[in-house]
Amino acid sequence: MAAIDFNDIEVILRLICSIVIPIILTMIIKHLLIKFQKKTGSITKDNISTIMKIIRIIAVIVIIIGCLDVLGVNIESLFVSLGLVTLALTLAAKELLSNLIAGLNIVIEKPFTTGDMIGVNNYKGIVQKIGFKNVELLAKDETIIVPNIIFSQNSYINYTKNGKFMQKIKFSLQNNQYLDENLKIIDDIIKNCDDLDKKYKYSINVRSFDDNGVNITVKVPIKDIDNRKVIVSKILVEIYDKIKIDPTKD
């Protein structure tokens, strides 16, 4: 590496440009994203935050490489001389980069957003946060951390993609003597429940008959996904008050 003369204006200007230009470009991209978000509403503030984290990482890498180049460091020779260290760092960064790319794809394609109910790899929960490395799901009062790459490698379900969430409720009628009358009672309870989204249809189906009685499955469109357990309990309690039932697990 040749000696660097820091009194050389050209060297100083090149160093300044290597640092300032990526920073300015990062600021411009952020400004454009915010402007696009306000104009279209097609991306959220969380999406912008995720994209900017990725861009900042790229900007830092560009700044480091640019400064080393100005200082006369042969980047290619440097990587070769580092040998195993470079290989180890590359392998370590592979998973991070895979998650970054997968996270960017989630932000751009928007297969799901914050507040959606999704299922992947036997996990099911409400999306709390979409980060640049992982997605946080809330399920049964606990947070599940799912790496972004999982969504690129596996199939997943968005239960609220169409703007609704259908909650399944299973229970058994212990007395099937008045089945039609009991189904009418259940229908009235569901129809008059204020916690359900009236824009969408609900369903009441007889699954089977056994020693427990008549097994019923009800699917209802829940307004507030976060309170779905409370809503299900309210519906079951009201049905129980009028009909003797045996709630069963989904």
TrEMBL record:
Domain named Mechanosensitive ion channel MscS: residues: 96-161
Membrane-topology annotation of the record: Multi-pass membrane protein
Subcellular location, principal: membrane
One GO cellular component term noted in the UniProt record for this chain: plasma membrane
Keywords tagged on the record: Cell membrane, Membrane, Transmembrane, Transmembrane helix
Ranges of residues in domain Mechanosensitive ion channel transmembrane helices 2/3: 53-94
InterPro entries in the record: LSM_dom_sf, MS_channel_1st, MscS_archaea/bacteria_type, MscS_beta-dom_sf, MscS_channel_2nd, MscS_channel_C_sf, MscS_channel_TM-2
GO molecular function, one term: mechanosensitive monoatomic ion channel activity
Domain of life: Archaea
Family membership: Belongs to the MscS (TC 1.A.23) family.
Protein name per its UniProtKB record: Low conductance mechanosensitive channel YnaI
UniProt source species: Methanosphaera cuniculi
